[in-house]
Design goal:
Layout (H helix, E strand, L loop, with lengths): L6 E6 L6 H14 L4 E3 L19 H19 L4 E5 L2 H13 L3 H4 L2 H13 L5 E4 L18 H18 L3 E3 L5 H16 L6
Parallel strand pairs: 1-3, 1-4, 2-3, 4-5
Helix pairs in contact: 1-7, 2-3, 3-6
């Protein structure tokens, strides 16, 4: 079990900003340097409830996704000393809040909502780092036949993440728009000391 010296790197941000490609680029670089690292999964596509777009979404879907991520991070943290989270609990919590705003009062006032909020608040403390990926100025998002390609919704989720960052007092490091190679270098300069690798200043 690696919990005693786990380094958990959260790649956070709204959809369509390049979190997945960056997470895998970072993991590949760490493996080349002999670090036993892994990337967590994105669970949206496996949800038994509709998810992925503004019209195909629900509180139930986001509760399921939050639960799956919680369980996977526990499992990976027991097997790998470095876990890279492609989307953090904070990201999924933002989608949960977006859906909650549109839910009926009986759902909004459910005790389960406070349970989830408390769980997320405490779980966010388990991340060693939060690296925030900003939105680019692209007019459209890449079509993958699952996720929304609406930039308005992308920015709406980004604003909810901003509010959650402030509410929970999260210290995040913004990774500027650049190639993945440059972004990986920036991240390694921050985390290198914790995982025992040398980086260029």
């Amino acid at each position: 079990m690696f919990w005693g010296f786990l380094v958990k790197i959260g790649i956070t941000g709204t959809h369509g900003v390049g979190k997945t490609s960056l997470a895998h680029s970072l993991c590949g670089e760490l493996k080349e340097r002999g670090i036993h690292a892994v990337v967590s999964s994105e669970h949206e596509r496996q949800s038994p409830f509709p998810a992925g777009t503004e019209s195909r979404n629900s509180v139930e879907a986001q509760c399921w996704i939050l639960g799956k991520q919680f369980l996977e991070e526990i499992e990976l943290s027991s097997r790998y000393p470095v876990v890279i989270c492609d989307r953090t609990m904070l990201c999924n919590y933002a989608y949960f809040l977006w859906n909650l705003e549109k839910a009926p009062p009986e759902v909004q006032n459910s005790p389960m909502v406070q349970v989830i909020k408390n769980m997320v608040r405490e779980w966010l403390k388990t991340y060693t780092y939060f690296f925030r990926i900003p939105i680019s100025d692209q007019k459209t998002l890449m079509e993958d036949k699952f996720r929304s390609t609406t930039t308005d919704w992308q920015r709406e989720i980004d604003r909810i993440i901003d509010k959650a960052v402030e509410e929970f007092g999260i210290k995040q490091i913004v990774v500027p728009l650049a190639t993945n190679t440059k972004r990986v270098d920036q991240i390694l300069r921050v985390v290198g000391k914790d995982i025992g690798i040398e980086t260029q200043p």
